[in-house]
Amino acid sequence: MMNKLIAVLIVAIFLALLTLCSTGYAQTNTVSSTSSTVSGTTTVDRTPSTASAPSVVINNQDVCSFAASAALQSSILGLAGGAALRDLNCERLKLSRALFAMGMKVGAVAMLCQDERVFASMEMAGTPCPFYGKIGLEAAKGWAENPEKRPDYDKWVKENFKDEEIVTDESALGIFSVLLILLFL
User: Fold this and answer.
1) pLDDT tier at 138, thresholds 50, 70, 90
2) pTM for this predicted structure
3) 109 vs 20: CA distance, rounded Å
4) Phi-psi bin for 103: left (phi > 0), alpha (psi -120 to 50), beta?
5) Where along the chain do its domains lie?
6) DSSP category for residue 114
7) pLDDT at 142
8) Mean pLDDT of the chain, nearest integer
């Protein structure tokens, strides 16, 4: 996903630079003739065509995706594109509802617990998310023994492990020498 975003940004920057570096003038053909009886000027103007963004149609109401389209036009080149993008949170909610409707309540909760916000709220409420079929205290023990499987693992690491800088004699000597130099300035 990040590679696609970088590629789109590079193309957009290239096209923006292309637009700024080139100026678009209409073509002008001038024909002059000098004689004793006829003289005249002919001018022909040509404007560049425009890029139109395509319409992306999603006809079903029960689809967790949305359409996006865009177009970019310079005096030389026009680009247009469109795509249908997935909404993963919407898919998660629909899957959870389907599991709940089939009577699989633990599975429905486990599906929702893949979202780190739901995981944190369940933890704050004192009802930990299911862990490989275990619920309650067994699930809490499973999450404590395997924190890398948490959906909020990066945030959990930042909150539970602090990087402390240790001041050694060498760094203290360096700080003292900088202060001494500043004193003499």
Assistant:
1) very high
2) 0.52
3) 53
4) left
5) 51-86, 89-160
6) T
7) 93
8) 78
d(CA 145, CA 138) in angstroms, rounded, equals 11
Question: Which is higher by pLDDT, 162 or 90?
Answer: 90
**Helices of type H across the chain:** 2-21, 88-101, 105-112, 116-124, 137-145, 153-160, 169-184
Q: How many CB atoms lie within 10 A of CB 110?
A: 19
Q: Using CA atoms, how far apart are residues 86 and 80, in angstroms rounded to an integer?
A: 20
Long-range residue pairs from 150-159, CB within 8 A, at least 24 positions apart, any chain: 150/116, 150/119, 151/113, 151/114, 151/115, 151/116, 151/119, 152/116, 152/119, 152/120, 155/116
If you search the block for the tokens 């004793």, which residue do you land on?
36
d(CA 53, CA 80): 5
Per-residue pLDDT band at 32 (split at 50, 70, 90): low
Structural contact between residues 110 and 130, judged by C-beta atoms closer than 8 angstroms: yes
Evaluate whether 53 touches 68 at the Cβ level (below 8 Å): no
* Position 4 confidence tier, pLDDT thresholds 50, 70, 90: confident
Tokens 């539970």 correspond to 160
